[in-house]
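User:
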Amino acid sequence: MQAAITTERVKAALEAAREAMVADRRYLHQHPELSFQESNTGAYIAQQLKALGIETREGIAGTGVIGVVRGKESGLCICLRADIDALPIQESNEVPYRSRNAGVMHACGHDAHSAMVLGAGRVLHALRQEWSGTVLLLFQPGEEKIPGGASLVLKENALRDPVPAGIIGQHVTPELALGKVGFHAGPFMASSDELHVTVKGKGGHAANPAVLVDPIVIAAKLLLALKEEFERYRNGRNLILAFGKFIAEGATNVVPNEVQLAGTLRTFDEAHRSELHAWLPRWSNDFCAQLGGSCAFEVRRGYPVVVNDPELTTNTRKAAEQYLGADKVVDMPQRMGSEDFAFYTQVMPGCFFRLGTGGKGALKGLHTPDFDIEEDALVVGAGVMVWGALGGIAR
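Assistant: Predicted structure:
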């Protein structure tokens, strides 16, 4: 990092950019788009970058954008990542920047993530004669939908010219107080796989139980037995197997031929994950066969484990302590939620941290119709990303 740049200088630059960040966040909040449909979102972000004179690459993984901010001399490259997609949720907030797209809402804070990376880009570009290296500003589509936009960004080799030495991302967190950030080195967020199960039997009239092989009974017994067996396998380890869907399309006097189940599998260890991918179908098939039925058990591979690189995470945490004060930086426990940022951590050092957006009002949780943030958090998150990037490229 160049000696001419101080935390005070960055904070002053971000305060000057506060109004623009709020405007960016509110525009994006009003115009949310679903995963891999973010054409207007990408166009807006590209327009802002070009207006600043920042080199802009469009069409990343379809609708994504990359801004390239170059310092006065060549050096290491750090990538700052934001996700840009919204969720299929009808917003209930009565605010001036309420979503204008029926049934679509930025209920996970991706509008804020994008505004903060835009804000970080504004400051880094304005101070570009005072630091060396390159910062890639990645605005990634499709975080909320398998296969995850991150996997597509990597598949098309979009992070290049130059290749980043590390990548930093963040996520708004309403249960963490405004002004604070949280870090966790190593495995941080769980892998997430979808489970789709079809239990088959022999249906018919409910008045003739002797000739039926009731798939509802088999499926109910399967769920209970599978949970018991999973607890033995888990043996106190941090793993989750849960089912949220049980569909039997019968009637009061009709037993269906099959039952549909759907659930999720989450782990913090890729070895355990692979073992379970093999074990769950095999065990379930054997169990249903013993009861006279059959089972088609499909594991749809989702996002891997987010593994925060110890060195990059330690350095980014130190940068946050310098920028905010040590009392504003906390330890975060592992989280069972998943993130496609995990794909980046498989191929390069990554640091994914949590940004406090909680305020004085009632907690408004992620993925809910009344989710919102305290917008003062924008300057906090953008500042940590700027200072983290400058520290990273000065290694």
